[in-house]
Each structure stands twice: as C-alpha cells, then as structure tokens.
Amino acid sequence: MADNKMTPEQLHLVKRNNIFKGTMILALAGFITRAIGFFYKIFLSNTMGAELLGIYQLIFPVYGIAFTVYATGIQTSLSRLVAAELGKRNDKNIFRILRIGLLLSVSLAFIMSILVYFGSDYIALRFLLEERSAKSLRIMAFVFPFCGITSCINGYYYGLKKTAIPASTQLLEQAVRVIAVYGIALWAGNGELSVTCELAVVGIVFGEIASCLYNVLSLFFPKSPDKFLVLEPDPNAKMSSKKQITKEILHVSVPLSANRLLINILHSIETVLIPTMLRRFGLTTSEALSTYGILNGMSMPFIMFPTALINALAVLLLPTVSEAQALNNERLIGKTTAVAIKYSIIIGIISTGIFIIFGKDLGTSVFHSEEAGTFLMILAWLCPLIYLTTTLGSIINGLGKAHITFLNSIIGSLSKILLIVFLIPSRGISGYLIALLFGQLIITSLDCIAVGRYVRFPFDAVNNIVKPGMIAAFSGFLLKESYEYIKKMTQTSEVVLILTFCLLFCAICIGLLVITHAISKEDIK
Fold this sequence. Notes:
Helix content: over 70%
Number of helices: 18
Oligomer: single chain
Strand content: under 5%
Radius of gyration: 23 Å
Number of strands: 0
Distance between the termini: 21 Å
C-alpha cells in the first residue's frame, strides 16, 4: 500500500508507470494473440477457401451489433466509474458497480441470443443477403451471455488499471478457439482437415466460454492480495445505492451504446454492400465473396496486427483520462495525450513502411495470393490514420465526450457508404479502397480537431512525423535492396525470410529513433 502522504509528483509518477506497465502487458498479450490469430487466418484461408472465408466474415457485423447492445457501453461505463471511484479513494462502490453491470449486461445478452437464434434465417436472407450464413448465426447466438460476463469483468479490471487478467483472457480465448477448431476438424475429417463456416463459429463459442470461466474464477481467486487503491481509502466515503449506481451506469452506457449501435449498423451496411456492389461491377457471387474474403480475411489482418499495442494503450487511456479529469489534473491529461498520440503516429509510420515495401511479397508468400499483396500495399496508407483514430477516440471518450466520436464516425461512415455505392460499380474493388482511405481520413481529421479543442498538449512535428518518416523511408530502401538480393541467393523459405526482414526493419527504425532522440525515457516519466 502506498503512503497516504505521497506527494502529487510521486502520485503522478506512479500513475504514469501504471499506464506504461499496463500497456506493455496488454500489448504483449495482444501481439501473441494476434500472432495466433494471424496463423489461424492462414489456416482458415487454406482449408475453407476465399469464398467460404467471405461468408464467415459476413456474420461479424451481426456479432458486432449484438455486442454493442449488451457489452460495449456497459464495459466502458464500468471502466470509467471504477476509475472515478479509484480517484476519489472510495473502495466501497467498486464491487457493487461490477455486480450491477453484470446483471444489466447478461440480461441484454440473453435477449440478443433469443433474437438472433430465432431470427437467423431472416437476418441471413434479408440483411446479410447470404442464406448460407444462417446456421452460423444460430451457433453464434449461444456465445452472447458469456461475452457479456467477460466484457464486464475486463471493464472492471481496466478501471483498476490491472491488466494481467484481461491480457491472459485474450490469450486463453484465442488458444482455445484455435485448438478446438483444429481438433474437431481433424476428428471430423478422419485425419484430414476440413473446416466449414459453422465449425469456425463453434471455435468462437468454445473460446469465449473458456475465457468467461477464467474471468469469473479470477474474482474469487485473486493472484495478488494488494489493494487496488494507490492511496489509503477515504474513511468518509459513502456507499451509493443500487438505484444510483444503476442510473450512473445507464447514463454513460445508453448514449454510448446507442451511438456505437448506429455506427455498427452503418459498418454492417458497408460490409453487406461490398459483395453486392462487386456483383454490379460484373463479378459473379462466388467471385465477389472471394474478393471480399481476400480483402477482409487476408489483407486486413496484416494491417490490424500492430493495433495490439495501440488497443492496449487506448484501453488504459480512457480510465486514466477519466480519473485525471475527476481530479482536475490537466497536466496528466495533456502529457498522457501527447505521448499516446506520438507513439500512435510512429507505430503507424513504421507499419506503413513495412506494408508498402514488403506488402506484395507478404501477400504472395503467406497467403499465396497476389491480390492480397496488392491490397496490402494500398491499405498501408491507412495505418497511421487507423492507429491515431483509436487513440484519439479513447481520449475523447475518457473526457466524457463520446457524442463527438459518435458524430465523427457517422460522418466518416456515411462518406464511405456513398463512395462505395458510386465507385465500386464502376471501379470494382479499387473503388472500395478509395472509399476506405477517404472515410478514415475524415474521421481522423475530425478527431484531431476535437482533441485539440479540449486538451492542451505539446506536439513535436519533427520527432513525431518528420524523423520517423525519413528513417522509415531510408531503412526501407536499404532493406528492400538487401532482401531482393538475398532472396535470389538463398534457399531459405520465403515466408521466414520476409518476416525476418520485417522484424529487422522495425528494429532498425526503433534504434535510429532512439539515437536521434525521437523517442526517449522521458516519454514515460
């Protein structure tokens, strides 16, 4: 337990170190999870084929809409409320907040399970425009209550800035999913792997049940007896009534869930429109689903792989900013914002360099798809925008301005949908890529304006943009030439060789950024 006479500077340092340590724990788990998921996607693409992979991807908009209703807003509200009570040194309300959140989330999850299960045929035929997805939807409906429990407990731990349990939950869920699908496929195929859409969804169910049980047990068997408060509890703090806590949870979660629900509906419309517009371009149903499967099942996992670090940072930013705001600590908000934005941009620039330089070879060597490599090179420009938007959105939500991220996302999504309708029928899949880049640019720009309006923070364009950009370009040029030469001269597996060069590119960029003082230890102090 920390000394209750801790100075403001010491308290600030402790909180900053908690953010850094928590981010690293979540990031490590996220990278491992994404690595497992990445190879799992390769496994699915090889065993299912591009068309079935496209059908499998179609069910996730429904999953996203349901998750928004029963989990997204409640998880965020739990994280914010627990962090606020932490800042006030009130340990009396924290567990009550979790219990009420669980009751609300699981109740809504059961309702969504019933609706999706019995409405699966209608959803598949009328909404997804692909009747073959109905059975997968029915299987997926069973997972909602377990997801609700997991999301609430994770929100509770995020609010406490204790990331070990959520991090290990990620790993467990992904590992069980992959093992279940591989094992069942091997057993059902009598030694030969045969994966269907339905089997892939069964893997999701097994993974979520395992992670749910693990999370629940973590509450009864805590790994550390340490109290979660940095300072001694306030003896004058009072316990809030159940009615008051419920009202506070709903006050935060209902607007956020409603906002996210509309955004998810727009994203779902966007997802369903892509194969439909591709058919108008002249592709057959099979070709349209295959193209969509390659884009979202092969190329996008590469682009989203580095978000393990960004998502870890964003998850901890929200409660940190909320707590700092409750204490009127503008200095902590400004410093945290500056560092978060800086590293989001740097990671985005390094990722862009990797995918532009090695994207073509990554697609052909890993997925054996030249089309996946082409998409990857084009989507590379999204990296700084996506990563920065994730960070900015978390900061804005932490300030209690969720309506701003909602409005910005709506504007960006509507722009994408309009461009999809007009561009894909005439340009094909390249029209969608243009729409994706343009829509994301709008969202990122609007979020930047919003953060600049509410938070005062220093921004060093030279260290944040110029140096990383020049270092990535220089390193990429040298390594690309070396890669092409070694590829011709060696018999090493192309996958191993290109992944080695990607890691080498990251190491060189980080080393040069440290040498040029673009990144330093001062960022976490």
